[in-house]
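Hey, weird one. I pasted the 3-deoxy-7-phosphoheptulonate synthase sequence into the form twice and got a warning about non-standard characters only the second time. First submission, copied straight from the form history:
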Amino acid sequence: KVNRLFHPEDTVVDVAGIKIGGKENIVVIGGPCSVEGEDQICRIAQEVKDAGGVMLRGGAYKPRTSPYAFQGLGSEGIQDMVEARKRTGLPIVSEIMGVDKIDEFVENVDLIQVGARNMQNFDLLKALGMIRKPILLKRGLSNTIEEWLMSAEYIMSGGNENVILCERGIRTFEKYTRNTLDLSVVPIIKRKSHLPIIIDPSHATGDWDLVESMSLAAIAAGADGLIIEVHDNPECAWSDGAQSLKPAKFKQVVEKGRAIAKVI
Ligand code: PEP
Ligand code: MN
């Protein structure tokens, strides 16, 4: 089902009215790594919207390396996202970690993110195949393109064809950046599959100062959109502050990205 041979035209996934994929335009998603409360997420949602972002990200269930690190606000964080959507009209994307949360996500979230660490959580993928909400499937930390596409196949074989791929950097020997952005996946995915692909330059680099250049390169390479971490006080962010853009910088990236999308 992921294979372009059997589906020559580009798939366009509709996320609460926002279309991802196809030739027309690029979709830029912005928001904090973690939801930190209703005021914070509603404030950043408005800033993302004012900057030209069309969808809001925010983690409520966080897959942290250390069990002692902030684990996310859970259901409260999801409800804060729902409130931010109510106030701004932006559709919301958030990460699911387990099968037990599917009902909560189907009810509340517009685009359900499967994080890098769960790319091969096959029970979760099978369960997401049984619903019809769009899924944002991130590439695993050390997974090949074939493995990534087979994970998309798990979701699609259940009947849910609303899958968007997201490259977020892979593990290499290089330690200067948090991960290594594998940009060649964009034309490779376009060759092998009809699914939309977006780039996450924030987790790919771990460094806000690299986010603009990698975003523009991703658009030039043919990506269908970007998902970027945005925080209005990155120094105090509860997670991933070092890779988060301030709203003014995010606005610049959105504008330059759109300009590049027009000429390619
Ligand atoms: C995230 O989007 O905040 C996240 C944890 O991403 P990844 O799964 O790519 O590490
Ligand atoms: Mn993050």
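That's the output from the first submission. The warning seems to come from a hidden character in my clipboard, not from the data itself. Residues 190 and 196 are 8 Å apart (CA to CA).
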